[in-house]
Amino acid sequence: MANCVACHNNDPAKDGPIGPAIKGSPKELIAARVLRNSYPPDYKAKRPTKIMPQFPYLEPEIPYLAAYLRAESAQQSER
Ligand code: HEC
After folding, report:
1. 1: closest CA among 11, 71, 70?
2. Pocket of ligand 1 (CB under 6 A)
3. Cβ count near 13 (within 10 Å)
4. Atom number of ligand 1 nearest to Cα 46
5. Atom 5 in ligand 1: which residue has the minimum CA distance?
6. Which of 3, 4, 59 has most ligand 1 atoms within 8 Å of its beta carbon, as the pocket-test mutant?
7. Among 8, 17, 23, 47, who pairs with 13 as Cys (CB 3.0-4.6 Å)?
8. How far is the CA of 59 from the centre of ligand 1 (A)?
9. Is the pTM of this model over 0.85?
10. Residue of minimum CA distance from atom 43 in ligand 1
C-alpha cells in the first residue's frame, strides 16, 4: 500500500490525488495494472490516461493487494 497511496487514496473507496478509487478491484485488474501497466481484455478503464507506473517487483504482493481491496469493499457494503 505504501507504493500506492502516493497517488491513490488511503481509503481505496475514494479518489486519490492522482489515481482513481480502486476499491474492489479484481485480481486480474490489479495484476494487469501493477505488473504490466495494461488492463484485462474488455475492461473499461476508469481513466483514459497512462500515468500510473509499473511495479513488477510487487508480483508476490498481488494476492494480498486483491484481498485487501476486496475486504475494503466488503466493509463498505456492510455500512
Ligand atoms: C504515480 C501515481 C500512481 C501510483 C504510485 C499508483 N497508481 Fe494506480 N493509477 C494511477 C492513475 C493515474 C490511474 C488511472 C490510469 C492511468 O493514468 O494510468 C491508476 C489506475 C489504477 C487502477 C485501475 C483503476 C480502474 O478501475 O480503472 C488500479 C487497480 C490501480 N491503479 C492500482 C494501483 C496499485 C495497487 C498501486 C500500488 C502498487 C498503484 N495503483 C500505484 C496512479 C498511480
Report:
1. 11
2. 3-4, 6-8, 18-20, 22, 25, 29-30, 33-34, 45-47, 49-53, 55, 58, 65
3. 14
4. 27
5. 4
6. 4
7. 23
8. 15
9. yes
10. 52
Q: Helices marked H in the chain — which ranges?
A: 27-36, 62-78
pLDDT tens, residue by residue, 9-30: 999 999 999 999 999 999 999 9
For the segment 32-48, the average pLDDT, to the nearest whole number, is 95
The percent of the chain in helix, strand and coil, each rounded to the nearest 5, is 40, 0, 60
Is-contact 65 21, C-beta < 8 A? no
- Amino acid in the structure at residue 68: Y
pLDDT in tens, 42-61: 999 999 999 999 999 999 99
The one-letter code for the residue type at 16 is: G
The C-alpha cell at 48 is 483514459
* Cell numbers found for residue 36: 504490466
